[in-house]
Amino acid sequence: MVQNVATHMPELEPADFHLLSGLEHGMRFSEWVATGKIPEFSRLDDEEVDYRIDRCMDQGLIERKTIQYTGYRLTFEGYDALALHTFAERDTVDGVGAPLGVGKESDVYEARSFEPLALKYHREGYTNFREVQKEREYTAEKAHRSWLYTARKAAEREYEALEALYPAVSVPKPVDQNRHAVVMAKVDGVELSRVELDSGQVVGVLDLVLAEMAAAHRAGYVHADMSEYNVFVASDGVTVFDWPQSVTVEHTNAGELLERDVENVLGYFERKYPQETPAVDTSTIAGAMTGDGFESVDECSG
């Protein structure tokens, strides 16, 4: 598990960030940056590099490996520190609080600022880079890409989608993005997978989720990874989050991905609420979303 780097930030000095930035630059060319290249990339002299390496190693911001040469690379904590440093310089974030959610592909923390915010660090590719590289279209055709690139592209993709969708679609309000991190408004609610709906609420909540998917399609996007784990349910509606795998409606496979999203959502409700969920065809719902517009599952059933 990647640790929250916010507690280390007050101890870091400008030259530490020069070292971290230098390694970030060097990792564009190789997974491990040779010791002799670090002064060039960081613009620090040899003695300063040695000192900063020791400091950053002690705080878990970089790691070392000896192959045919001794090389260094950023850990995710080091990459987190660079992104958080940028957010602080922009006055986007004043501090980082408790974790809101930790998963295989992202860590989300409370962020202190002018309003309640959430700070999301993308982790795609760190533990299983080759598999993610195959699955994500923004890395699949790249010959040499580190997990830094994979995570950064995921953050860029998500932020771009949020900016395009908000506020027409109920998604978290985007605030800022840097490297592999996205700052967004904190969303209240409970994950759909953990909600226990009354029989009278099932169709209503299902309609809300599908309506947001339809609104996203009208705004030009397909989520492409819909499930019960990326929908928040609250008293005033639902919010759809996690958009790094989204595609535009012009994408070659947009129709297929939309049908899969609809199938995932309907399948969840059918499994959990078999008596309350209307029998409806996936392609009928997807067709309504891309045609005259989705109104309700009842209108598409039977």
Characterise the protein shown here.
With 302 residues, the protein is α+β, with helices and mostly antiparallel strands. The chain folds into three domains: 73 residues, Winged helix-like DNA-binding domain superfamily/Winged helix DNA-binding domain (Arc Repressor Mutant, subunit A); 92 residues, Phosphorylase Kinase, domain 1 (2-Layer Sandwich), CATH 3.30.200.20; 111 residues, Transferase(Phosphotransferase), domain 1. It has ten helices and 13 strands. The strands form four sheets. The chain has a five-stranded antiparallel beta sheet with strand order 4-5-6-8-7, sandwiched between helices. A three-stranded antiparallel beta sheet has the order 1-3-2. A three-stranded antiparallel beta sheet has the order 9-11-12, covered by helices on one side. A hairpin with a 2-residue loop joins strand 7 and strand 8. About 5% of the residues have low confidence.
Based on the structure given, which CATH architecture of the largest domain is correct? Orthogonal Bundle
Number of domains: 3
Fraction of helical residues: 25-40%
Strand line-up across the major sheet = 4-5-6-8-7
Largest sheet: 5 strands, antiparallel
**What name does the CATH topology of the largest domain carry?**
Transferase(Phosphotransferase), domain 1
By DSSP (H or I, 4+ residues per run), the number of helices equals: 10
Radius of gyration: 22 Å
Average pLDDT, to the nearest integer?
92
CATH class of the largest domain: Mainly Alpha
Overall SS class: alpha+beta
- End-to-end Cα distance: 48 Å
CATH superfamily of the largest domain: Transferase(Phosphotransferase) domain 1
Stretches where pLDDT is under 50 for at least 5 consecutive residues are 129-135, 138-144
Form type: elongated
Q: What is the helix/strand order? A: HEHHEEHEEEHHEEEHEEEEHHH
Kindly estimate the percentage of residues that lie in beta strands according to DSSP.
15-25%
Record field, number of beta strands: 13
